[in-house]
Amino acid sequence: MFGLRSFFIEFGAYLLLMKEAFRKPQNMHIFKRQILHEMDALGVKSIPIVVIISLFVGAAVVIQMILNLDSPIYPSWIYGFASRKSIVLEFAPTVVSLILAGKCASMIASEIGSQRISEQIDAMEVMGVNTANYLILPKVIACLVFFPLLIILSIFIGLIGGGLGGALNGLSTFHYIEGIRMDFAVYDIVYAIVKTAVNAIVISSIASFRGYTMKGGSVEVGIQSTRAVVQSSVIIMLLNLLMTNLFF
Amino acid sequence: MVELVNISKSFEGKKILKDVNIKFVQGECNLIIGLSGSGKTVLMKTLVGLYLPEQGDVLYGGRALNKMTASEQIDIRKYIGMVFQAGALFDSMTIEENVMYPLRMFQRSTYQKMLERVNFSLERVNLKGVNKMMPSELSGGMKKRVAIARAIAAKPKYLFCDEPNSGLDPQTSILIDELIYDITREYNITTIINTHDMNSVVEIGDNIYYLHEGELWWQGNKENIFHSDNKELNDFVFCTSLTKKIKEQSENK
Q: Confidence class of residue B1 from pLDDT cuts 50, 70 and 90?
């Protein structure tokens, strides 16, 4: 009972904070600069990890397909086709979002949390700055714009990794590409982008909430950063289940 | 003028401020003193609107800050400068960006004019050539001076300092005190300082307010603080051998 009550109290506080965050920025010039800065910190700097993981997971997916669908009744394009479906529908939008939750949610929560405990947020508020808007909205917009781009990159690199993994296990590149092109549906890509956009909002807003409402000292920064990663990961998985049922 | 009218504030059922009434004097240094946990920081944060009072009003020029709309509060806040205990400099920005921040945020001016103001503010606190440095590269005293420069950059009418001397050596403390005192006189601003540094009390205490367990226990100035018969105040003021000696000398005169 107490757990449910505290959940609703926290959820209410989260909604109120988001209401403050989603207001018109006080200074549009600084706001645009903040968005570009956050795109660099949260998006561009995530490219290496996305590329590395996508390449290896893409290769592993195709190798597993070859090993587990090793039967003469399956056509040779099936490996490319099944890998594309797995990468586009689940691996890129969900697994990469979880990886981004690990990297970006902890970064956002610890950054805002450190600003909170060192009174930097108080200093801005005394000056009259809407700190929720100034600190949170650029992060949400940066994630919303950049994460879908990262997911498209992840799909592309994952399919290349799959081709390499297949080639190393005797799958002809021609049949692999034939499978990738087979029965291609743009809807799958749109679904992946929509799912990623939702995940981007979840990651950035929950992590911002955890950092912004932080109280205490440096130990709390670690605790709240971990909570930000765990909570956003759980919500990503729940929403994934919901959206898969809803869209297919 | 800044005024507190019947201010009370509690946290988790514990009353931290009890019916505090203070009129702060413009153009002078107003010091709030008291033991740790007496409610000084809560009072300061209530004054600048970071905490909402449960009861009473914080008046700026006769208007209650806690009853203003958000845009009215922003108009008042443009005239508030605050120096936090640890400086609260933005650690991702250079010193120049830190001092320029309130100007960029709220003033429509050219970069050149803002830079001139930043340089003027930094020179006023005796800091030159630090524009491109990061806060982590500065000493504690320099950080405090940058915080003061940031607070005065937007030409405030009200300056709030939360324990500006904490963590500083005695010589640097005196420099910071003198700086705040001079700025207060020079710009005729209302300066409110939280401190438990007795040296500050003696040096710059134009008006002194002693808080005891959340209540305004005594008020006076640096001249009459040593002649008070208030027991709690005397216990606080004369707890060091230095202040005891000052009292003895003062009584022998």
A: confident
Domains along chain B with CATH numbers: 1-79+156-171+181-222 (3.40.50.300), 90-155 (no CATH)
Domain boundaries, chain A: 35-243
Closest Cα in chain B, distance from residue A31 (Å): 10
Contact A126, B50 (CB under 8 A): yes
Q: Looking at the partner chain, which of B88, B101, B106 has a beta carbon nearest the beta carbon of A119?
A: B88
Q: Which residue of B has its CA nearest to A121?
A: B88
pTM score, two decimals?
A: 0.88
- Among residues A157, A152, A159, which one has the least CA distance to residue A83? A159
For chain A positions 24-53, those within 8 Å of chain B (CB to CB) are 26-27, 30
Q: ipTM for the complex?
A: 0.88
Per-residue pLDDT of B189-203, as tens digits, reads 999 999 988 888 888
Residue A163 has pLDDT above 90, yes or no: yes
- Residue B74 C-alpha, separation from nearest chain A C-alpha, in angstroms: 5
* CB contact (8 A) between residue B104 and residue A125: no
